[in-house]
Known about the structure:
The chain is an alpha/beta fold. The strands form 4 sheets. Strands 3, 4, 5, 8, 9, 16 and 17 form a 7-stranded mixed beta sheet that branches. A 6-stranded parallel beta sheet has the order 12-11-10-13-14-15. It is built from 9 helices and 17 strands. Helix 5 links the parallel strand 10 and strand 11. The protein binds NADP nicotinamide-adenine-dinucleotide phosphate (NAP) and zinc ion (2 copies). The site of NADP nicotinamide-adenine-dinucleotide phosphate (NAP) has 31 residues, from helix 2, helix 4 and helix 5.
Amino acid sequence: MTLLTDSKRPAAASAQGAQTPAPPAGYGPYSAEGMAAYSPTGPLKRQTIQRRALGPKDVAIKLRYCGVCHSDIHTIHGDWGPIQYPQIVGHELAGEVVALGASAGKFKVGSRVGVGCMVDSCRHCAECAAGFEQFCENGNTQTYASKDRDGSITQGGYSTFVVVDEDFVIAVPASIDLAEAGPMMCAGITVYSPLRRWNVGPGKTIAVSGLGGLGHMAVMIATAMGADVTVITTSPGKAPDARRFGAKNVIVSDASTDWKKHTRSFDFILDTVPYRYNIDPIIPMLKRDATLCRVGVGKLVDPNVFGQMALVGARNAIAGSIIGGIRETQEMIDFCALHKIKPEIAKIPMSGIYDAWSKVVAKQARYRFVVDVNA
Length: 375
Ligand code: NAP
Ligand code: ZN
Ligand code: ZN
């Protein structure tokens, strides 16, 4: 392990926030302060946790920011099944490396890095070997609410410090601020991966349903890929923003929408809506053989239903997609740097997370809240 002496420790490592317990020098374990949920509802409260001592391939990261994903809210609300409390969520982490395990060589002390939804996987199944850790046949370890290698439950990025295997850490390009890097770790890769999988590019006409954290990244990324993008939104006020992000057209979804006007219009539809809604009018807007891919994942007890009649008319498919592999996540952030794509963010302190959650659920995020974990 690379021991960080005080003289080698970068300023970022010693500049602890007033309320952050300083991690002990060396290999850890390190204390971290987070904001934990203690029940499905009710405000988050500060909690001090221990991050493990550095294993050979671990890196210790002093976190600066963590994006607020709708998945954090689903998880704590129990939308996807019961969880154990207290639980710290957050899987859009960004910070600086402050210490390295003995054989960790991917980063240096001071490297600007991010961590997304996964912190480990089996590494030997066919999916892992192919770079699809998100589909690990033996189940990957997620950044929060997941059983870690030592049997403990992982605690996420609404916290000041984290220890992660370097294989699951992403390098942040110099042109991207750490606050903007956070949302790329989940929102960015979750939309980039299906856009690539369904060959979105020049000459393709696509739609993005839901203009939130994922949706606004999807519009910018698909536009940069060369596609002609339409936004389907329930919020008419977001139309100018949709166009600013690159959309050519906006369909406002309400009782008076003339869906038929758009029949057989799209080569691909990316659906980011977080709850059950009626997709039957949307399916016929797909061209023959085209796919609607859902990345929004609603409540387990209230799944989306759709009419088969809508689907058979033009041999359409409904698919799903979950985040992306580590290699592809690096590819995504490098693509964003190249095309100068950045999420539109609003910074909040740790004490503001619970209030931000209400705004996210009310479709009021513009377009990603990012927690300054030291404020
Ligand atoms: P978000 O910021 O809240 O955006 C969702 C957008 O969906 C809203 O802004 C809203 O856009 C639209 N919407 C339509 N009906 C809605 C309703 N009844 N309630 C709330 N929003 C509604 O959420 P996000 O962080 O982008 O996440 C979107 C979904 O993707 C969530 O279910 C999340 O868990 C899931 N997710 C999945 C993955 C994956 O790997 N598959 C990864 C990350 C997140 P308009 O105002 O434009 O209608
Ligand atoms: Zn997420
Ligand atoms: Zn695996």
